[in-house]
Task: structure prediction
Amino acid sequence: MLRIATVLIALSAAVPLSAQEAETLTPSGDPAPMRAVKLIRAAGESVLTDRTFFGQVVALETVDLSFEVGGQMTMFDAQEGQFLQKDVQIAALDVGPFERAVERAQINLTQAERALNRAETLAATNAVSATQAEDAQTARDLAAVALREAEDALANASLHAPFEALVASRLTPNFAIVSPGQPIVRLHDMSEVRVEIDVPERLFQNVDEGSDLKFTGSSPLFDAPVPLELREFNAETQNIGQSYRVTLALTQDDVPQAIIPGASITVTATLPLGDESLVMLPPSAVSYDSGSPRVLVYTPNPGGTDGTVAWQPVEVSSPNGTDLLVSGIAGDTQIVAAGLQMLTEGETVRPFIGLTVE
Result:
């Protein structure tokens, strides 16, 4: 009987010890290995928040060129996808009718000038009334106007590129008879390459000339990200997503010819937050205790192979809706990046340095 009581006392003493060490033992009773945690360092510099957008290249302007006069087109030298320099001739009409119209206008003007001289001579001798001389002057002026119109029509019988252009499409075949204003060719103004992005309303509030918001563009056609400058924005929101259409300019002088309207560019918007006491952390690095945010701070032990973790209260905000902006952490503090729910105050852990394959 005494032996049984002794065994029961020993078992009752062992139960609390097993519960206390449950978290440090595996199911087989062996000591659990030290947890490895991923650490991130709180930077002691100005925090940058950035967002990435899908950008599409657009032309400065897209114009359908047409003749101001009608006639038969006899020359059309513009291939789709071709780059044209400013003032290069694109198309021309048959100039024969326009040249004859100029000759007729010149003859009519000469005749009107003779009639005016005769009327002025007769009016000086009172052979005709002064009104007849004035009518002759009016006829002469009308003939001069008709000559200028004929000369303008002759000049308008040819079509030139009004800017450095990319031929988007040919809208009329050669040798067709065209009417005034009929679209002949569609041109993209490539004197300045622009990029359009849709910016959410929250970030759009920081888009102004006085802010430090910077834009850069990335593409396989560029060796490195290129700067983009804000040009304009559409003051109306899109139907979906409550976003604004923002237009940026590619200021680089040597733009590859493959950067044409419709090409895609990845645009990154970067906004300095300007407070060196702020740290950008992923949501997984912040835990909440009774509604109060906190982080796990890692303090290395002597030797540096392991360390202990401790909770530290912080204040958080979210400028972009994805990352958390944290204050209350000293610069260069090491913080546990994930798995906070599996760790306890004062627990000894080791930094995760990656998987090793033997």
User: Anything to note?
Assistant: Helices lie at 2-20, 96-124, 130-155, 201-204.
